Backbone:
């Protein structure tokens, strides 16, 4: 699978608000963003998610959902998944499950897109 980036959540509050780097990626859990799903994701969700994030939802960018906005992000992702094509729907539901782990840890969610 060719990826365009990853979604990261810290394993603990200690690393919340930081960006994963080569040396500390062990402190983060990651979910790959498949290249073939990036454009449909961006088209369906960019407008809705932009209101909740810091950063630009675009290629070559990083965007972050603060702890206070992760539940709202999950709601938007799940709402869009209902009518999405099967591949995108499956990835969006995986993203929602992934983000729930962030809620459980009381940490934010970071997208690093290249």
Residues:
């Amino acid at each position: 699978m060719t990826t365009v980036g990853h979604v990261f959540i810290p394993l603990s509050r200690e690393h919340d608000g930081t960006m994963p780097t080569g040396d500390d990626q062990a402190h983060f859990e990651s979910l790959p963003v498949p290249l073939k799903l990036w454009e449909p994701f961006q088209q369906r969700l960019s407008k809705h998610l932009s209101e909740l994030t810091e950063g630009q939802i675009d290629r070559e960018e990083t965007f972050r959902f603060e702890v206070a906005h992760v539940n709202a992000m999950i709601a938007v992702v799940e709402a869009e998944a209902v009518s999405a094509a099967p591949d995108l729907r499956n990835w969006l539901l995986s993203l929602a499950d992934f983000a729930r782990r962030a809620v459980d840890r009381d940490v934010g969610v970071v997208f690093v897109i290249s």
